[in-house]
Amino acid sequence: MIIYALIPLRKGSTRIKNKNFIKIQKKPLFMHATQQALKSRFISKVFISTDSDKVKVDNKKVLVIKRSRACSTKYASTEMVIEEFLKKYSCDYLVLIQATNLFIKSEYLDKAINKLVKNSKKYDSLLSCVSSKYFIWKKKNNYIVPKNYDYKKRPRSQDAELNEYIENGAFYILKSKNFLKSKNRLYGKITYFEMPKETIFEVDEKEDLKIIKKLITK
User: Is residue 62 within 8 Å of 16, Cβ to Cβ?
Assistant: First the structure.
């Protein structure tokens, strides 16, 4: 069985300039996820798909591949990058890893891979997430209304059975053979891998960066 990891890495960034190359704990942001992928017991090779010439990783298990011009624009979707990759490289399972989440650990990757592979007849794809116990409201016209509970019969938070999860953008795992049909990282029967609360933070805005730096130095 062949399991590859794919890390999309575009040199440009809208909210934070060159965020994938910002140094955190003396190494570029993308290296945190890359090193954890390399520690995985199941991932046989790590591919970094990029339009940058700055990406250098001295490891035989890592292959830096040049993405096409179409996949390098700010409008290009991650699904485009996955499709481009799978048309060139064949594997049974693909682990899509997003470098913006610094809380990825090899043990999480391996447990999630094991869950999907062991239940291959039951599930087709998997996403990482964080459990949510919050009472959520949404905006409607000039007001807000409850989305997941009845405020007139407010339950105790510890008794609420919300069963909700938030995508933390750390990683996704999918069976490669059907991706080219669905053209979506999540398809078919979807399962999840729950990660700790702090993993909800990923580097998207400057405020996220400040929070993450405080969390990882504790």
Answer: no
Three-state SS annotation for 84-133? HHHCCCCCCEEEEECCCCCCCCHHHHHHHHHHHHHCCCCCCEEEEEEEEC
Global pTM value: 0.90
Where residue 151 falls (left for φ over 0; alpha for ψ -120 to 50; beta otherwise) is: alpha
pLDDT (tens digit per residue) in 160-203 = 677 889 999 999 999 998 898 899 999 999 999 999 999 998 88
Residues 6+ apart with CB under 8 A from 138: 144, 145, 147
Strands 27-28 and 45-50: unpaired
SS3 state of residue 194: strand
Alpha-carbon 191 to chain mean position: 14
pLDDT tens readout for residues 56-82: 898 999 999 999 989 988 889 999 999
- C-alpha 167: how far from chain center: 8
- Of the candidates 57, 117, 67, the residue with the CA atom closest to the CA atom of residue 91: 117
Q: Which helix (H) or strand (E) holds 20?
A: none
* Average confidence (pLDDT) over 106-128: 97
| The pLDDT of residue 23 | 84
Token pair belonging to 43: 């991932």
